[in-house]
């Protein structure tokens, strides 16, 4: 019985190690990025300077539940975008 257990363990152990490596290399970083993006979307406020995933730079004028109104130039042109389209907040 002891030999059978060792044989099963030797066959299953590489699979378990592979799953553990996959979790720490792929799944966990993805969860961290998703959490950070959700926090970014929840903390947006009027006056924030943002960059969208499409590369559009603008300043937040209004925040709704799912959308933002942003000013994209000095003439006051505005766009309405989904909050999910925000890539980052500009520091300058």
From TrEMBL:
Originating species: Macrococcus lamae
Pfam families tied to this protein: YajC
Taxonomic lineage: Bacteria, Bacillati, Bacillota, Bacilli, Bacillales
Gene behind the chain: yajC
Membrane topology category: Single-pass membrane protein
Descriptive protein name: Preprotein translocase subunit YajC
Gene Ontology cellular component list: plasma membrane
BP-aspect Gene Ontology terms: protein transport
Record-stated family: Belongs to the YajC family.
Compartmental location: Cell membrane
